[in-house]
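Notes taken during the Thursday session

The instructor put the following on the board and asked us to keep it in front of us for the whole hour. The protein is EF-hand domain-containing protein. We were told not to look anything up and to reason only from what is written here. First, the residues (491 in total):
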Amino acid sequence: CLPHGWTWFSRAQCQSGEPPGPDREREKRWAELFDQLDLNKDGHIDIVELRAGLASRGFSRKSLEKMVEAGDTNQDGVLDFEEFTQYLRAHEKQLKLMFHKLDKNNDGEIDVAEIRDCLRSMGVNISMNDATRILLSMDKDGTMTIDWNEWRDYFLFNPLTNMEEVARYWKRSMMLDIGEQLTVPDDFSEEEKKSGYVWRQLMAGAMAGSVSRTGTAPLDRIKVFRQVHGSSDFTGSVLTSFQVMWKEGGPWSLWRGNGINVLKIAPETAIKFTAYEQIKNVIRGGNETRTLRVHERFVAGSLAGATAQTAIYPMEVLKTRLTLRKTGQYTGIADCAKQMLQKEGVRAFYKGYLPNLLSIVPYAGIDLAVYETLKFAWLNRNIGLADPGVMVLVGCGAVSSTCGQLASYPLALIRTRMQAQASLKGAPKLSMLALIRNIVSQEGVTGLYRGISPNLLKVIPAVSVSYVVYEYTRMMLGVDIEGRRGGKGKS
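Then, after some discussion, the predicted structure tokens were revealed:
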């Protein structure tokens, strides 16, 4: 009794032989959703069809796998119409409970103040502007409130089961490492700090940074050579530079300096995060619940970066020296440090410190400003859709980091040249300003951007590798992208 073109709702009616009850509209909507998602019209929905049908929602593969796992009662790896509707029926009940928990005054609508108060009660402090942006991402009718239908539609395919998970979804953040300044996610809740979630996330970020830096180390070495030697050596294409390094020291020479570049990630991450938390507390004064404004976050981030860089800066100098070394010059990190100490003294370990410190401010400021601008532009253009998906956030992070690099690159170049001065025979020991004047007079302003092409080439592979490793490491440590441990319950 099923004519061609009927929906799954029609099939369900036909099979039951009974007219639809009071839930007719809801059942019809579910049937239409199933029909839309069942791309090959075989009566089942698999993870591939879910990803294709919900691509615009920004959900991770892990989230959709959890949805299939929760609804797949017969364990065949796909959802038929009955399993699909059973899952949605159970999930809507959970969403209803969360909606009523947010709706403190029981008026059937959620406003900005209720969102902010709910998150604050769980230790997640956000500003009114941030709460408004969260609301606008769900407010389809422009009333500046969220009714039940808007709430349900927004979270229908997101396997969140309690308000703590919703809070983490809204403030989702990640660590991306492109081998330059290290980013650390902002604003962890007190619950996350006490549970150990923070350090698992930072550990995942450090692992991701290690893999991405190792993968792009050859490009980083070319950048350092071009920064130090200017236009005298390593001219031509990136491929030509690879050939020169390979000829001098073999294939392993492409990774010189990478060992200490990886070793310094863990202490830099720990120091920067600890300093950032302490500086935020100082800025807040006695009001621990106050949310930092953008310029306050910038100040805190810059000071935390300066603190971390001061502590690990000798490792930066060693990294440059080891990257530039010729075959047989040093036997390892310890030998390099010993020779520097004997020949140049302790001060050698802080060569280039001033331009390095100065570069933190433009990098941190522009990185933060561009990231916030891009993310909010996406939110404003996609009112009513889900929060920016991970790939949107990764894209924003890649673009903002690149802009930050462009602004701070001349100072980074000066820093690298000062770090390498003693290793270049006959090279004059110039100050920061003298180096700038020397480069501009001999090579022009473009000389301050020597080596930037291999640096830009590594951004996309570094961000991509960093993100993939970061997410898989988080899952291995028991924290998926929505912030849950072990995939169940709250942290």
